[in-house]
Design a protein that fits this description.
Layout lengths: L7 H16 L3 H50 L1 H9 L1 H12 L1 H7 L9
Helix pairs in contact: 1-2, 2-3, 3-4, 4-5
Length: about 120
C-alpha cells in the first residue's frame, strides 16, 4: 500500500504496524500517538507556511517602498523630482542607486556619506 501511495504519514503507520506485529503491544495506543504526531506535524507545517508567506509579503513591501515614496514626493512637489527625471545624470544616478545599490555606491564613492 505504501508503494502505491507514498506519504510520510502512511510510512509512519506502516512502520508502526510492522513493529507492533513483531514486538507486540497495544496497537490502539500506537495509533493514538501516531494521530497526535500527524496533527502536530500538520500544525507546524501550517505555521511554517504562514511565516514564509509573511516574509514574502515583507519582501514585496520593502521592494515597492522606494517607488511608492518617489511617486508620493512627485505627487506632492514635482519640482523635487525634476532633476532626477529630466536629465541623463539624474536618471543614471537613480538607476544605479535604487536598482543596484551596491554597484552604485562603488561607482559613486563620494555619495557614501549620504547613505544611512
Amino acid at each position: 500500500m505504501h508503494k502505491r501511495l507514498p506519504s510520510e504519514d502512511l510510512d509512519l503507520v506502516v512502520t508502526s504496524i510492522a513493529i507492533s506485529q513483531s514486538v507486540g503491544g497495544n496497537l490502539a495506543e500506537v495509533f493514538d500517538k501516531i494521530g497526535e504526531t500527524i496533527r502536530e506535524r500538520r500544525r507546524v507545517e501550517g505555521r511554517i507556511d504562514s511565516l514564509t508567506a509573511q516574509g514574502k509579503i515583507q519582501g514585496i513591501v520593502v521592494s515597492l517602498l522606494p517607488l511608492v515614496v518617489g511617486l508620493a514626493i512627485y505627487w506632492i512637489d514635482p519640482t523635487l523630482m525634476a532633476p532626477l527625471l529630466n536629465n541623463v545624470a539624474g536618471v543614471h544616478h537613480h538607476w544605479l542607486h535604487d536598482h543596484h545599490g551596491g554597484p552604485g555606491l562603488l561607482l559613486h564613492p563620494q555619495d557614501r556619506e549620504h547613505r544611512v
